[in-house]
């Protein structure tokens, strides 16, 4: 069987995080319903990923997949393929649980669903707080973060951090927190380099983790997105030069910027391909070519949250914000392996 060796980055608190992980968000279909039918495929994909050498898994309460993620990890531990401390698991506290005690309870519930004794990293998923009816709760994320600090102090988690925080929100958090966040998970892609936010995180020793790193490269629905697409001649030529694919080039480019990536794939050859990026170097002249694609384009804009307090992105001028999809407000935990 093919194997991959994935290096670690160091977190400021002494813990290590594998530089590439496996994303477990199965996404929403065209009716904005969660793609629950892919759960069995996710289990198979994760088993394969562990077998070939992945050690880092990114999940969240929202993804409904914590039971499945925990099931696979525990199975591989029982089989002797890995030990618990070989694995790095991230989960996230959803917008419904932003009061300090609720955030703490959410971490405990995630532990139960994962079937683990501790979680490696817990993040505030978004700085926005919305209840299950879609009401803006306007809870300060500092309050939420205190719940994560308590979870860390009580040994439930090894590291804590945030996701989708902009620079101003991060500065405010740093000014008021007791335990500095170890990670900010944000979207960074070839045309959304987030240079200012990434260098701020670096200056504060906060590790950036990039989600949806392929942006519109692999997504069919983003057909009207600005270049590049996966068949871009310039990217294609560069990828050929290194005997790699365009997606590998993108993941390597982000790695060389010191950014962790967590690509999601249910396809075995892609799972292998995505982690086979640690055997080449993109020359600085080629890095400069890749950097030119940066145009601040965000492939996933949750515009329906724009009206809520603490929305982290630049606001768009439009009256048509739409309602928050029901599937982001209410769900049953787990899909196949439900353990509420
Ligand atoms: P990705 O950028 O990882 O893209 C996933 C898509 O790309 C899938 O359709 C997959 O198809 C396809 N794909 C994967 N590898 C390849 C490849 N080598 N060649 C061609 N196509 C490929 O998007 P995600 O949005 O899933 O982001 C990754 C992870 O980030 C999520 O799973 C989740 O864990 C996290 N995330 C966090 C967010 C946050 O708010 N903090 C927001 C969004 C995501 P297939 O599966 O069919 O192979």
UniProtKB/TrEMBL annotation:
Residues annotated as catalytic: 63
The name this protein goes by in its record: NADP-dependent oxidoreductase domain-containing protein
Residues binding substrate, per UniProt: 125
Matching Gene3D superfamilies: NADP-dependent oxidoreductase domain
Keyword Oxidoreductase part of the UniProt annotation: yes
NADP-dependent oxidoreductase domain span: 20-293
A Pfam family reported for this protein in Swiss-Prot or TrEMBL: Aldo_ket_red
Organism of derivation: Pieris brassicae (White butterfly)
Protein's UniProt keywords contain Oxidoreductase: yes
Site annotation Lowers pKa of active site Tyr: residues: 92
An example Gene Ontology molecular-function term: oxidoreductase activity, acting on the CH-OH group of donors, NAD or NADP as acceptor
UniProt keyword annotations, A-Z: Oxidoreductase
Source taxonomy: Eukaryota, Metazoa, Ecdysozoa, Arthropoda, Hexapoda
